[in-house]
């Protein structure tokens, strides 16, 4: 069957496409017209995803480091080495000394098996993945907060929206299938609002563009809520309480803090107040900064604004970046959950899984990915790239180099494989069967269209072999068997199987749409002053505020982009500049007599670097924007810091100056 | 067998005919994928041909000019020798039940790939192909072939053209190759009566009526595009919505841009050509770093110029669009060729 139905391996939209196969090789891709997300469209990445199969950069044999260099080795040798070294470290220093990282791009089946290996073979809950960072864990995985990043809305729901609010999210870069829908909606008269530090491509279609000063988003939401209630007076106990909470957040006060004019705040609020079916699009831009919990809480308060509706309607469409980020969380690649958010701390959960798996589950929560790197001695990483993904790549790299042992399963070279003692070659999405769970919780299949190149193997098989060598035999005949087991143990995946998924275009996980009333206790005076102190404080010496942008050049440093012919070229992975490129407004450039492309000195209170300044009409005066991919280049100016409550590393905005060299 | 311009073949005989074709050639025909998706694909048995389809998700060019195509392989020999082996595809193929728009595109591709430097890869495949059209009696949502003079019925160029009639298909013979295809299974065909030929004419007229009124004829738009009398704002607006996905070039039956890449193992490898798109930012990027089409609006303007201007029409004998409408469906930003053409023609922004 020369056209194999599968799901795109890049972003969380989950577009459906066919891989064209000629003589056992994957030679092309074409979008599915019938598929509810793709509808005949793909972005540049989907159109070239098939190149992953053919690219010469793929790992084709296991590699073992000898005399400082990675050299070809046999599977026997490599697997034995991984099992024995991890086993030794565990035996000598206890299960807490080993850590495992799973993958936002791996299938549910391989992630599940990896988590099982960690818990059953290694006896540890040190199982996580670097991209879980995007969901600001620790807080959002608590049951009462889960609605904040558990979308009940799907991409298709954008079609029924009467107002779309893009909050620090630029779908044209990160989720093109969503951008396509937003553009169509705007064309058909749906109100479009954009709140972002940098105006995205869709900004030209928006009725309003609000640019709050970096770090002040949550104030803006409080101000909007207050104005919304002015236009649409509260009529239920919940909305009355909310209105009370934000009663002193006048538009003028909001302007003073956020820099967004009172007039614009009121205009946007008025538009929101008229909406019956608003949708708020949130991505990493919302969750990866300091007060994300408060922000998402506040945004979700809009669920309650519907006039007369006693049932709140979900309004947040949270889009995770990668094709199976959602699935990795669902599969328990999390230090304190097994599958389906069932806590390891819960005795009943442990008993149930111990019975099913035949091993006692460790009760103590494990280390998060960013802590793991520095606190364990040995690691097994599957399809993850902490150096490439964490806010502080330098620190991650140093930590990996200090490990006694690092084994990495992957398909292409990454910054993490560079530090590995053993590399085991895996299979791309085109070379294995499995499932992905899209950002909006639709489980879809990927199907094998060709064999993995050279001696590479599907990850689920590699994990089974390692597990058996570590004393916990795993014998599955197929990924389908693995999904059956997942479904039996995971209420939210109940009833799923390859057979059930065969007809149609995947299965939507039905989750509780119960929405807890939002808790706006962040509005009190004490928290207020804490919020205030956390804001970057520009002064005469450092008059501008620099912030990181998660959507600009979102894919340039992605190994799957670097490793394919066309994407590498088109997304700029082959043209990494020598200096970081920052964007500033024409007004600020004029103040410092800077021309477009000028080399500059970028300074902050922590340090300085040379950079190249590009003038951008999308950036407001007073703000400097740098793409996340260049964070290491500006690390001295804008260092990573731990979130004050959760300890998760973030990149807080900071005050800077930009001068000619 | 009596030589005639047109034959009839009954419903039941069609099945047997396809079975006969499968004996000596690969048959590429519309085939159901999943849901309502249909694509031109090799069929293994007659029941796989989806005769009642509207359009294929991918144009026929994919079969003559693949998305990734090996051109030659190299092999290191003992000593310093390198052996080069060109890869040509000489498989006999019958392209069966192909829509007139897609076949019109093939006629254009024939001209593109034979002028200047004849493209042996395409031409080899083409020489071993027979083209059997299936005329359209019902246009699809985005179709506008009548504006491009590429359908819904073809006047010529095909080897055979089939028109669905109540009792089977009218089979018009266009070339000697087509005549051969009929002769090889002559017991399945009978000379078409005048009534069938008349029915075909009527169906063609009815089909033309079925296109929506606002389908935009190209002639006036052509003049304005050729002489650059289109307001820049139009390209600006389209540029705002373009996400540079490349889809319009890939789903377009007449687009042929490609790049090359080497895929090598140890010691030997394969040089392939891969589809490329002029809508990519890096498409025109020069080694110096200069990019003559850095902005999306310039790239879009270039694309429309290529499809609609006289210069190309003169070189290639027709303008570069067959009205299949796939670019409209495939565009993330919903840039619509017909709306744009209409706006150009009417002088609107």
Describe the fold and architecture:
The complex is a heterodimer of chains A (661) and B (349). Helices cover 32% and strands 18% of the residues of chain A. Chain A is an alpha/beta fold and 661 residues long. Chain A has four domains: 3-53, ADC-like domains (N-terminal domain of TfIIb); 71-134 and 331-434 and 449-494, Rossmann fold; 152-318, Dimethylsulfoxide Reductase, domain 2 (3-Layer(aba) Sandwich); 536-660, Barwin-like endoglucanases (Beta Barrel). In chain A, β24 and β25 form a beta hairpin. The radius of gyration of chain A is 24 Å and the shape is globular. The N and C termini of chain A lie far apart (60 Å). Chain B is of the alpha+beta class and 349 residues long. Chain B folds into two domains: 6-209, no CATH class; 218-346, no CATH class. In chain B, strands 3-2-6-7-8-9-1-10 form an eight-stranded mixed sheet, with helices on both faces. Chain B has a four-stranded antiparallel sheet with strand order 5-4-12-11, with no helix packed on it. The longest helix of chain B has 16 residues, at 194-209. The radius of gyration of chain B is 22 Å and the shape is globular. Chains A and B meet through β2, β3, α1, α7 and α24 of A and β3, β11 and β12 of B.
The tally of beta strands of chain B, per DSSP, is 12
Averaging pLDDT over every residue of chain B, what do you get?
Answer: 91
Return residue spans of chain B where pLDDT drops below 50 for at least 5 consecutive residues.
none
Mean pLDDT of chain A, to the nearest integer, reads 91
Task: Please give the number of β-strands of chain A.
Answer: 26
Strand content of chain A: 15-25%
Arrangement of strands in the largest sheet of chain B: 3-2-6-7-8-9-1-10
**Chain pair with largest interface:** A-B, 46 and 42 residues
Cα separation of the termini of chain B: 59 Å
Largest sheet features of chain B = 8 strands, mixed
| CATH class categorisation of the largest domain in chain A | Alpha Beta
Strand order, sheet with most strands of chain A: 5-4-15-14-13-6-7
Share in helix of chain B: 25-40%
Low-confidence stretches of chain A: none
Count of separate DSSP helical elements of chain A: 25
Gyration radius of chain A, in Å: 24 Å
Q: Please report the number of helical segments of chain B.
A: 13
Determine the fraction of residues in helical runs of chain A and give it as a percent range.
25-40%
Please tell me the CATH architecture of the largest domain in chain A by its name.
3-Layer(aba) Sandwich
Please summarize the sheet with the most strands of chain A: 7 strands, mixed
């Amino acid at each position: 069957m020369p056209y194999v139905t599968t799901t795109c391996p890049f972003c969380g939209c989950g577009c459906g496409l066919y891989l064209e196969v000629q003589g056992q090789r994957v030679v092309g891709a074409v979008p599915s017209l019938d598929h509810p997300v793709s509808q005949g469209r793909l972005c540049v990445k989907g159109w070239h995803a098939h190149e992953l199969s053919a690219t010469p950069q793929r790992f084709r044999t296991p590699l073992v480091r000898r005399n400082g260099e990675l050299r070809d080795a046999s599977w026997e040798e490599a697997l034995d080495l991984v099992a024995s070294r991890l086993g030794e470290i565990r035996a000598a220093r206890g299960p807490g000394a080993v850590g495992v990282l799973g993958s936002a791009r791996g299938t549910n089946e391989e992630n599940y098996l990896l988590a099982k290996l960690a818990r059953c073979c290694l006896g540890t809950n040190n199982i996580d993945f670097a991209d879980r960072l995007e969901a600001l864990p620790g807080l959002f995985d608590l049951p009462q907060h889960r609605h904040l990043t558990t979308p009940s809305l799907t991409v298709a729901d954008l079609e029924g929206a009467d107002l779309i609010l893009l909050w620090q999210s630029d779908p044209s870069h990160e989720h093109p299938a969503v951008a396509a829908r937003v553009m169509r909606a705007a064309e058909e008269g749906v109100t479009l609002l954009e709140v972002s530090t940098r105006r995205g491509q869709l900004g030209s279609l928006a009725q309003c563009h609000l640019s709050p000063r970096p770090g002040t988003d949550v104030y803006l939401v409080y101000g909007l809520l207050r104005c919304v209630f002015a236009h649409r007076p509260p009529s239920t106990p919940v909305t009355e309480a909310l209105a009370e909470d934000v009663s002193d957040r006048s538009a003028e006060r909001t302007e003073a803090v956020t820099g967004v004019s009172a007039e614009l705040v009121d205009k946007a609020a008025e538009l929101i107040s008229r909406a019956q079916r608003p949708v708020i699009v949130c991505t990493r831009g919302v969750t990866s900064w300091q007060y994300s919990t408060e922000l998402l809480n506040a945004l979700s308060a809009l669920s309650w604004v519907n006039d007369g509706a006693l049932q709140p309607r979900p309004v947040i469409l949270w889009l995770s970046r990668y094709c199976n980020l959602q699935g990795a969380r669902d599969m328990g690649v999390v230090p304190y959950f097994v599958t389906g958010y069932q806590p390891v701390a819960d005795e009943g959960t442990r008993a149930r899984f111990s019975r099913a798996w035949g091993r006692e589950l460790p009760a103590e929560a494990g280390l998060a990915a960013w802590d793991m790197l520095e606190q364990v001695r040995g690691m097994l990483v599957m399809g993850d790239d902490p150096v490439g993904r964490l806010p502080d790549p330098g620190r991650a790299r140093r930590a990996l180099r200090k490990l006694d042992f690092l084994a990495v399963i992957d398909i292409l070279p990454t910054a993490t494989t560079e530090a590995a003692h053993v590399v085991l070659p895996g299979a791309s999405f085109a070379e294995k069967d499995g499932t992905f769970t899209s950002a909006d919780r639709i489980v879809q299949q990927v199907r094998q269209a060709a064999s993995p190149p050279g001696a590479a193997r599907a990850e689920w098989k590699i994990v089974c072999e390692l597990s058996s060598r570590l004393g916990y035999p795993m014998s599955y005949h197929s990924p389908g068997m693995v999904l059956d087991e997942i479904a039996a143990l995971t209420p939210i995946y109940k009833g799923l199987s390859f057979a059930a998924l065969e007809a149609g275009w995947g299965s939507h996980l039905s989750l509780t749409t119960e929405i807890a009333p939002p808790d706006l206790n962040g509005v009190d005076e004490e928290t207020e002053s804490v919020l205030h102190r956390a804001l970057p404080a520009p002064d005469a010496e450092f008059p501008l505020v620099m912030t990181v942008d998660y959507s600009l050049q979102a894919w340039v440093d992605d190994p799957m982009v670097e490793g394919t012919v066309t994407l590498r070229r088109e997304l700029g992975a082959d043209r990494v500049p020598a200096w970081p490129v920052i964007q500033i407004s024409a007004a600020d450039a004029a103040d410092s007599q800077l021309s477009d492309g000028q080399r500059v000195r970028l300074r902050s209170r922590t340090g300085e670097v040379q950079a190249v300044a590009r003038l951008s009409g999308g950036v407001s005066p007073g703000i400097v924007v740098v793409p996340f991919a260049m964070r290491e280049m500006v690390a001295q100016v804008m260092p990573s810091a731990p979130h004050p409550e959760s300890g998760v590393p973030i990149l807080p905005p900071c005050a800077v100056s930009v001068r000619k060299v | 067998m009596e030589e005639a311009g047109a034959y009839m073949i009954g419903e039941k005989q069609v099945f047997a005919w396809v079975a006969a074709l499968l004996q000596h050639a690969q048959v590429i025909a519309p085939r159901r994928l999943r849901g309502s998706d249909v694509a031109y694909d090799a069929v293994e048995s007659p029941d796989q041909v989806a005769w009642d389809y509207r359009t294929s998700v991918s144009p026929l060019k994919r079969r003559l000019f693949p998305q990734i195509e090996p051109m030659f392989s190299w092999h290191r020999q003992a000593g310093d020798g390198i052996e080069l082996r060109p890869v040509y595809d000489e498989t006999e193929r019958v392209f069966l039940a192909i829509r007139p728009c897609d076949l019109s595109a093939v006629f254009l591709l024939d001209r593109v790939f034979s002028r200047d430097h004849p493209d042996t890869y395409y031409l080899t495949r083409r020489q071993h192909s027979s083209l059997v059209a299936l005329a359209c009696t019902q246009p699809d949502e985005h179709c506008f072939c009548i504006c491009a003079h590429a359908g819904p019925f073809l006047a010529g160029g095909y080897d055979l053209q089939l028109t669905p009639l109540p009792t089977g298909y009218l089979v018009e013979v266009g070339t000697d190759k087509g005549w051969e295809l009929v002769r090889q299974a002559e017991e399945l065909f009978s000379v078409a009566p005048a009534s069938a030929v008349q029915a075909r004419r009527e169906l063609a007229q009815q089909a033309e009526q079925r296109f929506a009124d606002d389908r935009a004829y190209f002639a006036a738009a052509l003049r304005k595009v050729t002489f650059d009398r289109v307001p820049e704002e139009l390209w600006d607006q389209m540029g705002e919505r373009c996400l540079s996905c490349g889809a319009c070039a890939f789903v377009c039956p007449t687009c042929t841009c490609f790049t090359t890449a080497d895929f090598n193992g140890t010691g030997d490898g394969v040089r392939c050509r891969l589809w490329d798109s002029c809508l990519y930012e890096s498409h025109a990027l020069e080694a110096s770093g200069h990019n003559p089409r850095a902005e999306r609006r310039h790239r879009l303007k270039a694309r429309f110029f290529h499809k609609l201007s006289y210069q190309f029409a003169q070189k290639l004998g027709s303008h570069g669009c067959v009205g299949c409408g796939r670019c409209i469906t495939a565009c993330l930003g919903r840039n619509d060729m017909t709306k744009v053409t209409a706006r150009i023609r009417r002088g609107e922004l």
